[in-house]
Write a structure and sequence with these properties.
Elements (H helix, E strand, L loop, with lengths): L6 H8 L3 E6 L2 E7 L5 H14 L6 H11 L1 H28 L23
Antiparallel strand pairs: 1-2
Amino acid sequence: MRRFPRAKHRVSYVGLAPSLYASGERRWTGQITKQGSSLLRWALVQAAHRAGITAGFAPYDEQQAQRHGKAKAAVALARKLATVSFYRWRAVEARKSRPGGDKFGSAPRLAHGQKTDPSV
């Protein structure tokens, strides 16, 4: 994960970070920056619409929809999905870099009843 050291960098790359206006001690957040790949941003928002009805993300989506409206809630959930995917990717990369490599998927699958050593 050398390209994105933190989740906020990935969110910013996708263009789902809010723009920020600052003058002196005052700060205002505006609409999303829309920088980066519009196709990736579209895919994350579409995934957010679907994830909003699942048990894991439904409470967050409903809360955001009540506070800000359904469209902004979808963008907020897309930002959350980008963050979650960053941490999932980082966990997989960390698991691969451990001694012994990736424990899942590195060994060949055996048929039912087959022994690990074919010579036996």
